[in-house]
Amino acid sequence: MSIKTLTGLFLGAGFALGISAAGTAVAQEWTPEKPINIIVPWSAGGSTDQVTRIVAAELEKALGGTVVVQNQPGASGSIGSKSALDSDPDGYTWTAGAAQDLGTYKVLGMLDTSIEDWNVYLDVANVAVIGVNADSPYQTMDDMLQAMKDDPQSVTVATAGLNSGGHNAIEAIKKAAGGDYKHVTYDGGNPAVIAAVSGETMATTQLAVEQAEMIRAKRIRPLAVLNAEPLILEGYGEIPPITDFVKDVPIAPNYFGIFVPKTAPAEVVAALDKVWAGDIANSQALKDYAANRGAVFAPYYGDDAQKRVLPAIQNNAYLLFDGGKAKVDPSTVGISRPE
Question: Which one-letter DSSP state was computed for residue 279?
Fold first, then answer.
């Protein structure tokens, strides 16, 4: 879908339900008495780091306290996520990232948690772009797909690691189109993109928000977007959808956000519900970021957010399971196969 179409879908009836839920919340007003710590479980400069720092600034204004963003990369984001999960249940330590990652750590055997263990506050939805080094011989997506079949070891793909948005994207393409590739992992989306720009790898399948500047600078040539409709990137133009080249690729919105353990006090959750319904839903800084970086503004929370993230979690869980990368059968931990 195009960014305009996706935005219309995301800002539909579900968002209205989220606002209604916040309006009926009854809890004591909460004002932070010490700094809030948001753990970004990826390296600086990547998709999670970018949007979390914008949201943190909005939260500081809305809550009247200090919000500290701390990068703690490692093990595909599971190390930083575990730090938040194991933190003092006083509601002052949160994490951030993609809901589909957090929802499938249990399937990978990395972290014993499910998305239901968290209060979910979404900010944007991201799409992956198949981008290649500017000097790459691949001029079109068809060229890269053919290379994946003819000489898989030559197709080096940089991602932020197992279970990252970039890894999920190339695995989905591989499953639908056949062939293979050589996976080269980094501690975040930003170093993965730099690897493709420098020629250390042939390609990257990280998110549009991480590749946007290099695409505009013509350091990366975008071949396709993992979407059913083109992506219109400000300052560049149109990137064709993967469905022009490969059929039956599983596609679901890749929602990013802030995640607060369910152990947090009720007043913390009520305060965040109120902030998301008002300040975040009307954040011009977040809207501008989404428009400039090729993301979709998606300020959802509560039960609505939990429902919206489920399709991507299901897709990701079974992509990993069917590809032999999962240690746990998703059906045994409450994740049903997508229809």
Answer: I
